[in-house]
Write a structure and sequence with these properties.
Blueprint: E1 2-7, E2 10-13, E3 18-26, E4 33-39, E5 46-52, E6 57-59, E7 67-72, E8 77-82, E9 91-99, E10 102-105, E11 109-114
Parallel strand pairs: 2-11
Antiparallel strand pairs: 1-3, 3-8, 4-5, 4-9, 5-6, 7-8, 9-10, 9-11
Length: 115
C-alpha cells in the first residue's frame, strides 16, 4: 500500500509561481516513478509531468520550460515547481503512481491563477 498527499496549491496571479509537493508514505520502496496530472472543471484529467527514479523526466507541451518536476528521495517527496503561471493552468493537481498494477492517487491540491 502507498499513500500520497499533495500540498502547496493556492491562489496566485498570472506570472507567479507555486511549488506543489507530493509526499508518499507506506511501501515507498516499491515506487519507481511519479506523475502529476491536472483536472480543470468540466474537463478530463490530463497528464502534466513524470519523473522516473532513473532521473528521466517528461512534460506535456504546454508546461515545458515553465514547470519542473523533481524528487527528494530522503523525504519520499516529489515536487512540481510551476513558474510563469497562466490562467489556463487553473486546475486541481494530483500526483499518482502505480505499483504492481495498482494505481494510487492523492486527494489533490487546487491551483487557481488569476489575471
Amino acid at each position: 500500500q502507498v499513500q500520497l498527499v499533495e500540498s502547496g496549491g493556492g491562489l496566485v496571479q498570472a506570472g507567479g509561481s507555486l511549488r506543489l509537493s507530493c509526499a508518499a508514505s507506506g511501501r515507498t520502496f516499491t515506487i519507481n516513478h511519479m506523475r502529476w496530472f491536472h483536472q480543470a472543471p468540466g474537463k478530463e484529467r490530463e497528464f502534466v509531468a513524470i519523473i522516473r527514479w532513473s532521473g528521466d523526466t517528461d512534460y506535456r507541451d504546454s508546461v515545458k520550460g515553465r514547470f519542473t518536476i523533481s524528487r527528494d528521495g530522503a523525504k519520499d517527496t516529489v515536487y512540481l515547481q510551476m513558474n510563469s503561471l497562466k490562467p489556463e493552468d487553473t486546475a486541481m493537481y494530483y500526483c499518482t503512481t502505480y505499483v504492481n498494477g495498482v494505481e494510487y492517487w492523492g486527494q489533490g491540491t487546487q491551483v487557481t491563477v488569476f489575471s
